Amino acid sequence: MSAISVALTGNPNTGKSTIFNELTGARQKIGNWPGVTVDKKVGVIEYKDRKISVVDLPGTYSINARSQEEKIVSDYFNENKPDIVVNIIDASNIARNLFLTVQLMEQNIPLIINLNMMDEAKRHGIKIDEQKLEKMFGMPVTNTVGRSNKSVRTLLDVFTNTRMANYQPSEIFKQHIERINAIKASGEPQEKIDEEIITARYDFIDKVMAEAVTVSAADTTLTDKLDSYLANGVTALIIMVAMFYLLFQIAFEWIGQPLADELGGWFEETLAPAATEAMAEAGVADWMQSLVSDGIIVGVGSVLSFVPLIFTLFLCLSFLDGTGYMARVAFVLDPIMRRVGLTGKSIMPLIMGYGCGVPAIMGARALDTHKDRMISILITPFLTCSAKVPIIALFAAMFFPDNVANVVFAMYIVGLATAIIMAKVLGHTVFQEKQSTFLLELPPYRMPDIKTVLLETWDKGKGYLIKAGTIIFAMSVAIWFLSSFNSDGMTDEMDKSYLASIGSATSVLFAPQGFDTWEAGAAVVTGIMAKEAVVSTIGILYGADEDAVDVDDADSTAEVLNATGMATAFTPLAALAFMVFTQLYSPCVTALGTIKKEAQSWKWMGFAFVYTCAVAWIASLLVYQIGRLLGFE
Amino acid sequence: MKLTLKDTTAGMTVRIDEVGESALKQRLMTMGLIPGTRVEILNSAPMGDPIAIRIRSYNLALRKDDAANIKVSQV
């Protein structure tokens, strides 16, 4: 059994990752924005007694090593000689896609040209003669329909049957190489040479197009019709806001939150009492019973019950990604982003920030200038990452039961508005460099591949699950310990525990914001470790109350906690101030560590911590004090 | 004065004459903006900038500041 190594390469938005997913079933990110696959993804398949290892290289337009992705691809080919290189081409966009093909072949890399999305090309009036294309390059040409599993599986036969050594570049391609060599030897300035080479490549592509491709005058495509609304003028902005509002309705009103309520109720009403009973029967020590029921089940449970909500949200975002709409979001928002000193492209890492700040901070690498990168990193912590969702979902359900979606939406806006304002402030004070540019492909709208959307949802959401099992588990044990012990040993009176001392010391800071209870103070402190811990802390501190566990008419975390002291500990206005504060304050320790790594400085990490806390403190102060002046409580 | 891509309006079709010197020049060329290439002007973002163009049967967005470096003539 001999092994075959295969590398997939191609432009962004060619369906390359979808093909990779179909081939390997591997878990990996895919989106319709350029540059989303930054890491090298590998999958191994067994087929006809052969072991086929497939690597999915990042999507790039060229291999000039100008961007992170281009460098990855060019380094890969410098260091590896895979048995088979498959160049995935979006058939409906063949002219530009062939640029990479030509450049790869100039580097003496033999490849299989795979025409993907042939169905779409046909609809656009593009006909490709595969035999002529094969003749023009001298390399084998295959085709796939991106979403058809069957057509992708035929690639496996191609992998096992093709001997790349049997293929040689065509005569006409050799002439192209000679022309390139002549340009290189011309002795002109490097810049001039590079430009002439680019022109020569498109000359060759034009020859290929004339020979092997017929483009009949296509009617206005669906993409153009949609774009005249979705990416045109102020209408596009209004539709975009409506689109995101709908997304929050789906996640918080229709599907995600109701499921979360069910699960939360089950933890509180079924699992916790059952565990207590089982342990009592088994004669487990009292402190152990308390640790499991009041600490772990309540703490981890209050976080786990939000899993349906998080997954619904990611599912919606991944779906939008797959349709190509996200590129329009960047396009439509560029005028705004530019005015605050960023580019529409920064919206991509920032949107990731709505999942988790850590990949968002790392994603800032892909931006063009140091200024773009630093500002993007420093404003990411203000965005509503998935770990903050439980906080606002819980508080909105408890204190604003009639307006849940509106309050949640408002919190997202608070985060976004703060991020925008701070970008502007940082751009005018700390980072003063000249403006950058914005160059972005707007891919055709496509029905996303469901398998790919699900894999991506799982990929993003599993981080939340892993955290619930590790950090949150540990934090729950720690919070339980701190809330059940003081210097005299174990205590039933939580308000005399270690945690109460820590919490009340912290809560002094929040007197002007109206939430100066020790429980809130403790939640703020644990939230720096992980934002999920805010809810699990509150769950343990209020939910551990004997009466709460017995509540049998409550069917959600919110309703269980409503029956506890929490309902009276916050006025609605104080709850709003608390939501604003937790929305904006310090990034979690994982995110802080990532900032340190990406900015390569402790100073920037410290700055990120101090300035976000200061901004959060002031914003929540304004909410509470102005709210009081307006007569709210 | 010579027409640039910046001066075009939606619905126009133009031909690229010259891509002017800028930090972006090689990237623009790599994306297929080569002298002689046909460009259709499509839609634009709120407040008219950036603009979307169709070139070599795909759509590309760029800012007007960068479009100002690209000399074109109407077809």
Notes on the structure:
The complex is a heterodimer of chains A (633) and B (75). Chain A is an alpha/beta fold and 633 residues long. Chain A has 2 domains: 3-215, 3-Layer(aba) Sandwich (Rossmann fold); 236-629, no CATH class. Helices cover 64% and strands 8% of the residues of chain A. Chain A has 30 helices and 11 strands. In chain A, strands 2-3-1-4-5-7 form a 6-stranded mixed sheet, with helices on both faces. In chain A, β10 (485-486) and β11 form a beta hairpin. The longest helix of chain A is centred in the C-terminal third of the chain and has 28 residues, at 602-629. Chain A is elongated, with a radius of gyration of 28 Å. In chain A, 51% of the residues are buried. The model of chain A is unreliable at 29-37 and 544-555 (pLDDT under 50). With 75 residues, chain B is mostly beta strands. Chain B has one domain (5-74): SH3 type barrels (Roll). Chain B has a 5-stranded antiparallel sheet. In chain B, a hairpin with a 6-residue loop joins β2 (38-44) and β3. The longest helix of chain B is centred in the middle third of the chain and has 6 residues, at 25-30. Chain B is globular, with a radius of gyration of 11 Å. β9 of chain A pairs antiparallel with β4 of chain B, so a sheet runs across the interface.
What descriptive keywords fit this protein?
heterodimer, A: alpha/beta, six-stranded mixed beta sheet, two-stranded antiparallel ribbon, 30 helices, elongated, B: 75 residues, SH3 type barrels, 2 helices, 5 strands
Helix content of chain B: 10-25%
CATH topology of chain B: SH3 type barrels
Q: What is the count of helical runs of chain B?
A: 2
Total number of domains of chain B? 1
What is the total tally of β strands of chain B?
A: 5
Q: Name the average pLDDT of chain B.
A: 92
Q: How far apart, in Å, are the first and last alpha carbons of chain A? A: 74 Å
Could you say which overall geometry of chain A the principal axes of the C-alpha atoms support?
elongated
Structural class estimated from helices and strands of chain A: alpha/beta
Rg estimate of chain B, integer Å: 11 Å
Element-by-element helix/strand order of chain B: EHEEEHE
Report the sheet-strand fraction of chain A: 5-15%
Uncertain runs of chain A: 29-37, 544-555
CATH superfamily of chain B: Ferrous iron transport protein A (FeoA)
CATH top-level class of chain B: Mainly Beta
Taking all residues together, what is the mean pLDDT of chain A?
Answer: 85
- The strand count of chain A comes to 11
Number of helices, counting only DSSP H or I runs of 4 residues or more of chain A: 30
SSE-based structural type of chain B:
mainly beta
